[in-house]
Amino acid sequence: MLRFEVTEDPSPGVDGERYCYAPGLGLWHGRTSANGDIVVGEDQLRALVSQARAGEAFAHRVDELLATNWDEALEPFRHAGDGAPVTWLHRVG
User: Fold this and answer.
1) I need a surface site. Which of 12, 16, 31, 75 has the fewest CB within 10 A?
2) Per 3-state DSSP, what percentage of the chain is helix, strand, and coil (rounded to 5)?
3) 55-65 and 42-51 are packed helices; what angle lies between their axes, rounded to 10 degrees?
4) E strand residue ranges, the chain
5) Distance CA 70, CA 31 (A)
6) pLDDT tens digits, residue range 10-43?
7) Residue 50: what are its φ and ψ, rounded to 5°?
8) Rounded Cα–Cα distance for residues 11 and 2 (Å)
């Protein structure tokens, strides 16, 4: 069962990005700020407010926007930290 998380660090004037995939959840994509927080856009918030009227539905949709289920599914596989080995993948051509 494949699962992964790919992040692109932000650069001056440009948000970063994060892609997460977990079995049973599918693919999630979001923008990230300089400190790694998920950036939720105005249009996303407007859609959330117009579609989710009840409190539980609203909370569920916020969790989807913030990738809560993906974080829970991927957390056991996150071992990187200071001093942890890193494998850099690159294209040779």
Assistant:
1) 12
2) 35, 25, 40
3) 150
4) 4-8, 16-22, 26-32, 38-39
5) 15
6) 888 888 999 999 999 999 999 999 888 999 999 9
7) -75, -25
8) 29
